[in-house]
Design brief:
With 173 residues, the protein is α+β, with helices and mostly antiparallel strands. 40% of the residues lie in helices and 26% in strands. A seven-stranded antiparallel β-sheet has the order 3-2-1-5-6-7-4, with no helix packed on it. Strand 1 and strand 2 form a beta hairpin. It is elongated.
Length: 173
C-alpha cells in the first residue's frame, strides 16, 4: 500500500482532483503536525528558568511591542516587551509616557505594571512555566492541523464513494 501511494506521487498531475486535494491537504497537515511538535518541544521563548523580577522607573518610550524605562535608582535604561499571551497593556501608550511605573517582568517580558497601585499591565500568567505554556498554546496551529487532516479524509472518502458508484446504464433495466 505504501509503495502504491509513493508511485502515485510520481504521477501526481494524472491523479483525479479529489486525490490531488487529499494528498495536498495531507502534506499540509503533516507540516503543521511537525511545526506543532517543534513549537511544543524546542521553542522556549527565552523564558525557561526565568525568575520574576521587579523594576521601577520612568517610561521614556512606549509602543505596541515594548516599553523603554529609565531606572529610578541607577538611571540605566531597560527595554521590556509587551508579549501577547504573557500580558497586555490596559491603557494607551501615550497615557504612560513620562510617568514612573512599577514593573514585574520575566527576563525582558512585562508581567505587570502599576501606577499608584492601579494595574495598567495585566499579567496572563504568574511564573515562567505558566507563561511558557501560554505562549506555546498561542503559537500552535491547532485549527490548521485539524482542517488539513479533515480535508484529506473528506477528499479520500468522496473519491472512494465516487469510484464505487455504478456506472449509469449498467443496471439490469
Amino acid at each position: 500500500m505504501i509503495r502504491s501511494a509513493l508511485r502515485s506521487l510520481r504521477d501526481f498531475s494524472t491523479l483525479p482532483p479529489l486525490l490531488q486535494a487529499a494528498w495536498l491537504s495531507f502534506a499540509i497537515g503533516l507540516f503543521m503536525a511537525l511545526l506543532h511538535l517543534w513549537i511544543f518541544n524546542l521553542v522556549d521563548y527565552g523564558l525557561d528558568g526565568a525568575n520574576v523580577e521587579s523594576l521601577s522607573g520612568k517610561v521614556l518610550y512606549a509602543d505596541r511591542g515594548g516599553i523603554l524605562i529609565e531606572d529610578a535608582e541607577s538611571g540605566e535604561c531597560t527595554r521590556l516587551k509587551v508579549v501577547r499571551g504573557i500580558s497586555y497593556l490596559n491603557v494607551g501608550h501615550d497615557q504612560i509616557l513620562g510617568r514612573t511605573l512599577s514593573f514585574t517582568h520575566l527576563r525582558d517580558a512585562v508581567l505587570t505594571c502599576t501606577l499608584d497601585g492601579q494595574e495598567l499591565c495585566i499579567a496572563q500568567c504568574a511564573n515562567a512555566m505558566e507563561c511558557l505554556d501560554s505562549r506555546r498554546e498561542r503559537e500552535t496551529p491547532h485549527g490548521m492541523l485539524i482542517v488539513a487532516f479533515g480535508t484529506s479524509l473528506v477528499c479520500l472518502g468522496l473519491h472512494g464513494l465516487r469510484r464505487r458508484k455504478p456506472a449509469s446504464g449498467s443496471g439490469i433495466f
